[in-house]
Amino acid sequence: MDSLLFTVIILYILSTAGYLAFLFRQKERLNQAGFFLLFCGFILHTITILYGASLVGHLPVHNLSETLSIAGWAIAGLFALFQFKYNLKVLGVYAAPLSALITVAAALLSTEPVHADKILESYWLIFHIITIFLGDAAFALACGLGIIYLVQERTIKNKKHGFFFKRLPSLQLIDSTGYACVVVGFTMLTIGLFAGFIYAKTVWGRFWSWDPKEVWSGITWLLYAALLHGRASLGWRGRKAAIMAIIGFIVLMFTFFGVNFLLKGHHGVFTQL
Predict the structure, then answer these.
(1) Nearest residue to 19 via CA among 215, 167, 147, 128
(2) pTM here?
(3) Rounded mean pLDDT of the chain?
């Protein structure tokens, strides 16, 4: 198990090196190498997660190490899908090191599983967790695209067509891809929350319990709903959408880390060290 995860980390790191080399050299073979290595890492990462699930009899998400591993896997997988769809090569410079960093953090933390009660072994819980993590991964990519948009916009406004101008795509492509990421993330988050409601009803007898994670998940949902509404009705495109995507991801990170470590709730079991 450890050797498999170590190999995944090596592949993600090599992919990061490939994409960074592509950023500087602009050679297509470097981009292809970066993507190939990331995709191989994702496949092996999938096998690692499935193997871990077969050993314990449930989805391995019962401590911080396991949840971070799932997060790194989701980012790599969604990036691969968006790469096929939009061919936004420069996004690999953000996605590959992010997947590598998260997976390294997962490997460095304790891998001792937290005792899982029977109530945690539910198909609704598995569906809830997978969709939530896929949504979070899409929002992470949207944040990266928001940063890329602001960098390219600043470069254009300064009229100094230097390093980034020639290497970053058009503002329109960045904006449209970021919007697609937000739509996917919002859809997955919505499905994941509904699955969580059903799971909570079957376990605790109520759909909503005002748990801190539930409250902040609701706040995150409302924030991204506002972003989509603003884009559709108020013309929030370009810079405004990019800034909102970054702010949304900051709130999302607080929901994932801050709530579990600063506030108490029944979701804390998934992030114990």
Answers:
(1) 167
(2) 0.88
(3) 85
